[in-house]
Amino acid sequence: MSDPDAPDVVSNPLTEDSEAELVGDNKTTEKMKTSSTEKMLEAQEAEEVDPPPAYVAIVPVRGCGCNNGAGCGCGCSPPPSTLESGGVREKATMKKNITMLHGICIIVGTIIGAGIFVSPNKVSKRVGSPAMSIVVWTLGGAISTIGAITFLELGTMYPKNGGQMVYLHKAFGSLLAFLSCWLLHVLLGGLRRAIGFLTFSKYFWAVFYDKPSEIPWMGNELVACFVCWSVFSVLIFKPDLTLKIIDVVTFFKISALGFIIVLGIYHLATGHTENISVGFNNTNWEPQQWGEAWNSVLWAYNGWISLSVLLGEVKDPKMLPKIVGISMAIVTVLYVSAVTAYHVVLDIETMNSESALASKMASKIIGPAGDYIFAIAVAVSTLGNAMCASLASSRFLQAGGAQGILPGCFSLVNKRFKTPMFALLFVMVTATLFNLAGNVYSLINTASFTSFAFTSLCALGLIVLRRKEPDTPRPAKVSLFFPVVTILTGIYLFVVPWFTNTIMCGVWTGMTALGIPIFYVCVKGYARPSCLLNLSGTITSCMGRVLKSE
Question: CA 230, 254, 242 angle in degrees (round to 5)?
Fold first, then answer.
């Protein structure tokens, strides 16, 4: 009999086998949890070391000259100014305030400088006849338009500030991108701006003095410096006013060229056909002379690339094809019509010997007042050209700093005014130094061939990128005819000057090559002296505080 007081025995359903199975399941679950946790940590680590997007410019780390910011892998840590809620924050950026009208005025204003008013004689002297001179200016406009169309595809692929530097970086790497910055904007940027300011000063004084010898001592240099500082003050503190001034000055330039064209039409309508009727007679077919003629013409058109440097500030990059097409049509029609007017009014001997053609032409028809009218016109034209070119040059340098191709201090953007203050100050200081140096015209004349080399490399880069990045969207894909013509033209314009001015071509090529060791030491950090290790970050940090930029 069973004991009623004894507790009921309840059989346990878990056998030894089932207990072992349950223990195994628990271990498997724990392993799965551990594996999942490890994967999550690995993913987080992978996210932490991914490089920031290209459009986020990082302030270089204090105490580190790497220019790569946080997470560069060199063991550095970001300064407090780069941290916000535990992450890297974006820098202040420029405003997107360039409309279609602004874009057209920037391109037209950059192309039209003093050259069309004072130096078409460089072309007529070399080709020898009025008709051939007009043909060369027409073909020069067509070739420049082909180059501008080539850059349309690149610009719509990468609608950001930097232009040539961005395209060279994407196609060939950072070395060629650095060399374009080094030559065209570090070495030549201030020199080109100084040419514009000194030319303004020259024609400013022409209103008051008949002879250059009557100008006060250092008068040209001091006026050039004053105008330089005034222009850069507007560029730094009033970016919206800058665009309005460029618009007004561009309309003034178009009006001045229109006045020249009207004078030519009036002279032709009164029966004066003796100059233009010479036609192609006495045309010079010497190859060396033609090379210099093409160089002069295409250099006069060389401003169509300016808007590609500012694409990051264009409100709608899809407007770029219309902007470029309208701009190049305006400039080509104005240039060809103005050159035709010169040849209608002035005989070929006067064209070849006279430098201030617009003044000479106007004084012949309307009297001495023409000298003063076009002295003012040339002064205003060069001022507008210098402002447009300074705007583009500063954005080129800023983009170079933001992408780590130049020292990080160039990338600094003022938080209040949204302008690249350090880059603008750099161009202003270098321009001032060249202004004080005085006669620097021969330097820029011999350096012009270098810009055509980088233009050709960009056109070649378009072909390379079609194989390298076939899936990148191309809103304005162009025929290969356009880059091929641009490449061949650039090679021709780069090679020909070596036969006429070998020494100076060698000097500028050597100056360009000097950028190669600078790139590997200062940018890549190879064999960098210890004293330079922290210099970049320290300078950037200090300038950021002084200029209230980031």
Answer: 30
